[in-house]
Amino acid sequence: MASEQKPEKQDEQFHPKGTVLAMVIFFILIVALWGYVYLMMLSQGATAP
Amino acid sequence: MTAISTTTPVVEVTPAARPATYVLSKGEKRFIGLQLLVAVAALSIGSLFGPLQALEFSGLTIGGRDIYALFQPLLASYYQGLTLHGVLNALIWTTFFITGFFNLTVTYGLRRPLAMPKLNWLGFIVMTVGLLTAAVPILLNEASVLYTFYPPLQASWAFYVGLVFVVVGSWIQGYGFYITYYRWRKDNPDVRTPLMAFGSLITMVMWQISTLGIAVEILTQLLPWSLNLLPGVDPQLDRTYFWFTGHPLVYFWLLPAYVSWYAMLPKQAGGKLFSDSLARFSFWMFLVLSTPLGFHHQFTDPGVPTIWKTIHAVLTYAVAFPSLLTAFTVVASLEYAGRQRGGKGLLGWIPKLPWRDVSVTPQILAGVLFIFGGIGGITNASYNINLVVHNTSWVPGHFHLTVASATTLSFMGIAYWLVPHLTHRTLWAPKLALAQAWIWFIGMVIFSNGMHTLGLLGAPRRTPLGIAPYVPANWEPRLLQTAIGGSILFLGAYLFITILVVTVLRKPAPAAAVPEIPEAQSIQDPQLTPQWLDRWAPWLTIAILLIILVYGPNLLYQITNMQNTSPGFRLW
Ligand code: HEM
Ligand SMILES: [Cu+2]
Predict the structure, then answer these.
(1) Gap between the Cα atoms of B406 and B20, Å rounded
(2) CA geometry: angle B391, B473, B78, nearest 5 deg
(3) How many Å lie between the centroid of ligand 2 and the Cα of residue B296?
(4) Is the peptide bond before B15 cis (omega within 30 degrees of 0)?
C-alpha cells in the first residue's frame, strides 16, 4: 500500500558501498578467469597457422 | 557514485489501494501443490542418474565390470540414464515447478484468483499427459537421444509427441495468466503491475515466443520423420530450430529464481528491494535479448556463416548486462537488509544476514554459485575461446552452476517456505534443511570445479569416461573429484526430497506457525517507476523485430535450401 511505501530515514541515506565493492571483485574475477582460459587457448596452439 | 533517487518527493499516485494480502483458496493451494509434486517426483528420479554418471567417471567397477552393468536390463546404457537425467531434471523438474510457482506469483501478486482456473488445469493436464507419453519410450529405451534430441538420432514418435504436449500445456497455463492479467489491468489501468506477477508474465511470454523453435522442429521435421512420413530430415536446420528455443530455455529456468530474488528474498532477508525500476528494466531486457542469440551454441556448426555467429556472440554479451544488473540490485537489496539488521562497515552487513533462515540461505548460496556460472557463460560466449571448451565436460560443469544451482538451489529454498505454506505444515527438521543447502553448495563446488578442469584438460562430455581407453593420467584425480562431488550432491538431493516428504506427512500446524507468502516492498514506491517500464507494446515490438533481424535471413536461407536427406540413426 502506498502509505507503507514512503521512504524511511535510512532509505534516503542508503549507498550500497559494499555492493559496489562486491561488483568490483566480480569484474576482476571475470577478467582473471576468462584470461586463464584465453591463455590456455594460446597454449593449445590457437596461434599456429 | 550517486545515491539512488530517493530524494524524489513521494506523491500519492496510487489510484486504488491494493489489498494488503490475498489468501489462496484450498483449491488453489492444491493445484499449485500438485504441480510441485510432479516436479519433485521428476527430480527424485532424475537425480539418481547424475551421481551414477559421476561415479562412473571414477572408474568404479563392481566384480570387474562397469557400474552400469549392475543395472541391466533395467537401465540399458549410460545414454538411457543420461537421457532420463537431462529430461527429468532440466525439462520436467524445472517446468512443473515454474508453472506451479507462477500460479502463486500471478494470483498473489495481482491479489485475485485466476480468471479461468479451468484453463490452467487443462494446461497442467496436457503437460502431465505429455510427460507420461514421453516417459514410456525413454523407459523402454526407445528414445535414448538425450534431452537435446538432435537428429539424426531418432526417437520413437511418442517421445516427440510427449515433448510437444509438455510445451503446449505450459503455453495454455500461460494463456490463463495473460487473461487474468488482462482483467486486472482493466480494473487497474494506472497501477504498476505488482513485481512478482510482472516478472512471471514476462517469463511466460518469452517462453511462448522462444518455444516456437522446437514446436516447428518437432511438428515439421522430427515427428513426421519418426512416423516415416518424411524420408529424412535436415540436421543443420533442426539444430538451428532447437537453439532458437535452447538458449531462452536457460532464461526460462533462471527468471523464476530472479522473481524470487527480486520480489521475495529482500523481504525474507529483512529489507526491501533496492530498485523497482532496475528490476523491471532487467526483465524487459531478458524479453528482448533471450532469443536472438541461439547461434552461440552453434559456433562449430559448419552450416552457419561466421557473420551470424558473430552477431549472436555480440548479443550474448548484451544479455549478460541484465544479469549483471540483477546481481547488483539483488546484492544491494541484501546489503540494505544487512544494514537494517545492524551491519556496519563495507562488508559487515554480510554476516548480519539471516543465515539461519532455511529459505534465505539456499537462495544466497544459489546466487554465489551463479556468479561462477555467469563467468563461465561469458567464457563460453567468446567465439574463439568457446573452441577450447566446446563439447567438453566444462559445459556440464558450467550448467550445473546455472540450472542445477542458481535455479535448483533457489527452488529448494522457495520450496522450504512454499510447501509448508501450501500444506499448512511446519517444515520438518529446519536445521537439517539448512545443512542440506550447504551440502548442495559444497558438493557443487567440488563437482563443478572437477568438471570444468576436466574440460580444460580435454575430456569430452556425454561420454562414460570410466570405460574410455584414452584417459590420460592427469584426468584421474579430477575424475575422482567429480565422483566425490557428485556423491555429496546425491546426498543433498535426497535430503531435500526427504525433508519435503516428511513435512507433507506431518500433522497440520496452527496457522500462526505456517510461513506466509513473502512479498518485498521496494525502497521507492513502484508507482514512481516510469510508465514505459510497465508497457508491453514497445518491448514486445523490439523483441520480435530483433528476432526477425538476426534470425530471419539465415533461417529463411536454411529453410528454402532445406535438404531432408538424413535418415534416422539409432546408436543404442
Ligand atoms: C544430483 C546431483 C547431480 C549430479 C551428480 C549430476 C551429474 C551430472 C553429470 C556427471 C553429467 C555429465 C554427463 C556427461 O556429459 O556424460 C550431467 C549432465 C547433465 N545434468 Fe546433471 N547432475 C546432478 C543434478 C542435475 C540437476 C539438478 C540438473 C537440472 C536441473 C541437471 C541437469 C543436467 C543436464 C541437462 C545434463 C546434460 C545431459 C546431456 O548431456 O544430455 N543435473 N549431470
Ligand atoms: Cu546459450
Answers:
(1) 30
(2) 45
(3) 6
(4) no
Quick one: which of B520, B526, B521 has its CA closest to B265?
B520
Domain assignment present for residue B147? The answer is yes
How many angstroms is it from B170 CA to the middle of ligand 2? 21
Q: In this structure, is residue B249 part of a structural domain? A: yes
Count the domains in chain B: 1
| A33 to chain B: closest CA residue | B375
What cell does B304 get? 552457419
Q: Give the tens place of pLDDT for each residue, B533-550.
A: 999 999 999 999 999 999
Phi, psi angle pair for B379, to nearest 5°: -65, -45
pTM: 0.94
pLDDT tens digit sequence for B501-536: 999 999 999 999 999 999 999 999 999 999 999 999
ipTM over 0.90: no
Q: Would you tell me how many other CB atoms lie within 10 Å of the CB of residue B572?
A: 15
C-alpha neighbours within 13 Å on the C-beta side of residue B145: 24
Cα angle, residue B238 at apex, residues B232 and B243 outer, rounded to 5°: 165
Domain span at residue B110 reads 26-560
Q: Are B92 and B167 in contact (CB under 8 A)?
A: no
Contact A21 B346 (CB under 8 A): yes
- The CA R_g of chain B, rounded to the nearest whole Å, is 23
CA B139 to chain CA centroid, Å, is 24
Residue B134: all three cell numbers together: 514421453
Helix (H, G, I), strand (E, B) or coil at B472: coil
User: How far B374 CA lies from chain A's nearest CA (Å)?
Assistant: 9
d(CA B153, CA B235): 9
The CATH number given to whatever domain includes residue B443 is 1.20.210.10
**Which pLDDT score, from 0 to 100, does residue B428 have?**
98
**Cβ separation of A41 and B371 shorter than 8 Å?**
no
Is beta strand B61-62 parallel, antiparallel or unpaired with respect to B65-66?
antiparallel
Give the three-state DSSP class for B464.
Answer: coil
Q: For residue B572, tell me if it sits in a domain.
A: no
Q: Please, which residues bridge with residue B233 across strands?
A: B566
Kindly determine whether residue A23 and residue B526, on different chains, have CB atoms separated by under 8 Å.
Answer: no
